[in-house]
Amino acid sequence: MAATSRGSRRNDNSDANHEWTTWFNVDHPGGRGDYEQLEAIRFYYRSRVCPVPRALEARTTDWVPARETGETVHADPTVGFWCLNEEQGPGRNCSNYSVRFLCPKDYSEILQGIWGPWSVWNACPAMCGKVGVQVRSRSCQSQTLSCSGPKVEGRSCNGPECPRADCHLHCMMGKENAECEACTCEGHVLLGSVRGAGGLVAEGATIVRLGKLLVLTDHNGHFRIPGVCPDGNTTLTVSAQNHSPLDVLVPLSSELTSVLSIRLERTGNWRERFESHHSIHKLQLWSFFGAMPYNFFIIFLFYLMNRSMY
Fold it and tell me: What's this model's pTM, rounded to 2 decimal places?
């Protein structure tokens, strides 16, 4: 392998049968250094570089020839050009280099056409519980050159889940979940916030559906539940410490996102305490007045007995 130290030597071997290519820069000096390798350049610019160049020339992106940079570099026309940061002086890294190659003028290589982009995958044709094949295709964009590689490719896909024979849940929206206890709507998201008494954030409030915990509210009292159907028939139970549980109906909607704003009341609020206290006093009053006929009768009987003694 040819190598030069303290500069890159230009092989001025151009003649009537050879010519220099354009300049290439496929790497940057980050990491271990700058690598302008022939293999990588031909990968991106195959039609513009011959397989075995006769010579190589390098310069920085500031147009300074490599031999004048004072940097330790390496060059081989059959391999490429590279500069290692660890070989430079203390505190120095390699410059950013561009390279060009000396190739025969009559160089010709069988060129290939360029493929257009792949189409989207077609819908999976498989029936429920079965496996099918999805297909996509692409077209060759060249009019005169053939393209190498497949025009069509496929991949396996699974059909939808088959309905459960023992599930009698009927979903107005979406489909039955695996437990056949609720309907799920893929793509729909339910967002909401829960506030407690006085409008305070209800952190850690539970959101339950059919006895199953779905989510807890975050530190802002917010929650996010994907898959809940906005069918106007789904009931969620919201609970928080020291607050009365509240049943909330998810409203009917055709949007992909629904939003709920929930306000909870404290357990045993002032109205309930007032009504309870008032009921106790009503009970005491009725007990007093209910006993009056009997008390009056005793007093009246005692009065009659005293009169009979005189």
Answer: 0.38
